Amino acid sequence: MRKKKPIKAKEPIRIRFKAIANGNKSIYLDCYHNGKRSYEFLKLYLIPETTEAAKVQNANIMQAANAIKAQRMIELANNQAGIKANTQLSKMLLVDWMQVYQKSLIRDGKTYGATINNTIKMINEYQKGILLKDVDKVFCIGIIDYMRNKYRMSNGKPLSAVTIANNTRALSCALNKAVRDGVINQNPLHTLSASEKPQIPQSKREFLSIEEVKALISTDCDLPIVKQAFLFSCFCGLRVSDVEALTWGMISKDNGNYVCNIVMKKTKEQLYLPLSKEALKWLPNRGEAKDQDKVFPLPSDSCVYKYLQQWVRAAGITKHVSFHVSRHTFATMMISLGSDLYTVSKLLGHTNIKVTEVYAKLVNAKKFEAVNLVNDVF
Question: Which architecture characterizes domain 87-191 according to CATH?
């Protein structure tokens, strides 16, 4: 008599894939629970495994997808068991939880210390001793109002809109971590309306002209890797966080052309980025470097900034130039040279073309400035 095979319980959450137009596969979770089906697209993508580097990258992406799936399985199990937030941890002081969040960022190689410390200062001055579990919508509205209308710096001036927005964002990110870790059930800042949340005013986006880029090319930098990384970004548009994370295995050939396949640090979106000859000129010599080795082994952010400023001044440029100006320079340069907005948006990895439209406005403003140079000359 044949033994019956044991019935394998079906998983309520499964990883599935959807082919997309560029040949990649989008990863999503198929969730079936209590007779209802829902989908969660993870914004993670598998690329064609044409190289060993692509295989390694896909393995890392799958590891991330499985980690998210495992977290969702735990959340589902907790909900079914009626498990609520971790009441012991939720009795922590809010400022203590902010420090827990800060330490987690440091472990991940991120540094937002000044903003978090400022936020802790605001919390202590507004309502010292508040527990994490007692943070609600009323508290959130109250501390935002305090920063907007009551707090004054040592010189008597109010906080800027940018500082208020950054402090609120730091608080929100810390509360999001508390939700992810099962310490609280929801982030009360998410219940605020758009008018109640501080907004960062649209900043002036500084960029370099083609003449200024040429000046930088012809000027030596005391730390050559900073020059290479900055100019590489000027010709491909990667953020500094992605330049720092770039490994040799992320650069490969596709039909004779060099491309970069990278998951962007800020958005977690997969970016397939063709590299121009100008960008390739600024890649360091690979030598014996392995696929997992960094392309641009940059020093600390403060050190990069120091050498960048010295180099910019030596080139005779008076603009305030941060590393991010390289990304703005790439965008405006592409639009000025005739590239369409949609293509530039895809090269930058923007998910919303409205973000890219800002660069088109910058270029148009420069055009008006140019034609008005002849006014009152004749």
Answer: Orthogonal Bundle (1.10)
